[in-house]
Amino acid sequence: MEIRTLRYFLEAAREENMSKAAERMHISQSALSKQLKGLEEELGKKLFVRHSFSIELTEEGMLLRKRAEDLLSMADKITAEFASMDDIIGGNIYFGCAESYQIRHLAALIKRFKKQYPGFHYHITSGDTEQVTEKLDKGLLDFAVLVERPDYAKYNVVKMPESDRWGLVMPAGCALAQKDCITFEDLLGLPLFCSGQGWHADLPLWCGERINELTLEGSFRLSYNASVFTREGLGYLLTFEHLVNTSSESGLVFRPLYPELTTDMFIIWKKHQVFTPIAERFINELQKEFGRNY
């Protein structure tokens, strides 16, 4: 299985049309068809359902698409890393970031680092802990930013200087908006929105097994999307402070939970990993800014 063939496969999957994919890859349609047929024979599975003017992925094709995207991202990252091994003033660094107001600390550090090393380029992927650590473990990311306690045996860790405060986002005109803080009893019977990670990992630290008394209306990975549903009156959003707009013009307000619930944020990278010179220098700046790993 060749990298080039996987690129052909992904282009065909994206275009859902053989002639368009062949045109984009600058090969003939017959050559592309031959490559994809050979890939199907190698794997012993049918990857596409062919129609008169289009193609669509089979279940096996969908699985290969996910694997191929990871493999090609890794191949491109390896190529870029070797190209920059002798370049101490530039190169690429890949970050996977959870949602948090504290990302501003990382952004400020990157801004200063970029001024010092103009040839430095950064790439940001957003996701929850499960998503970004999976990519980190596969080597697709250099650093992950988590709002969950990491595995210290597996990763080098620095802790962000602050903590995120949990609270409830709600329409400004609702009765609960008149309160200064929100208790567990206030949440009983309400349709609630929350991230899956927050619902299963963070909130039980606040209310224990009584989490089962609350009603999860829907889960969201992105707080902004959940805030739109909240503004429409479909539910109430449990999230970190500052993640969504709760200004006077927004129609929403934030009230902290009581007793207070906070979550720490960490930047992690794999132990014993070989980094490019620019990434090594970034680690030095990271540790100077936020402290040594512990």
The percentage helix is 40-55%
Task: Give the tally of β-strands.
Answer: 11
- Secondary-structure class: alpha/beta
DSSP helical segment count: 10
**Unreliably modeled segments:** none
Strand content: 15-25%
Mean pLDDT: 91
C-alpha-based Rg, rounded: 23 Å
Which geometry do the CA atoms define? globular
How far do the termini sit from each other? 42 Å
Q: Sheet with the most strands?
A: 9 strands, mixed
Question: Concise description?
Answer:
With 294 residues, the protein is α/β, with parallel strands linked by helices. It is built from ten helices and eleven strands.
Main traits of this protein?
294 residues; alpha/beta; nine-stranded mixed beta sheet
Characterise the protein shown here:
The protein has helices at 3-15, 18-25, 29-43, 59-83, 103-116, 129-138, 184-187, 196-207, 223-231, 277-290; strands at 48-50, 55-57, 90-97, 119-126, 143-146, 155-171, 191-194, 215-219, 236-240, 252-256, 262-270. A hairpin with a 4-residue loop joins strand 1 and strand 2 (55-57). By secondary structure, the protein is an alpha/beta fold. The radius of gyration is 23 Å and the shape is globular. The chain starts with a helix and ends with a helix.
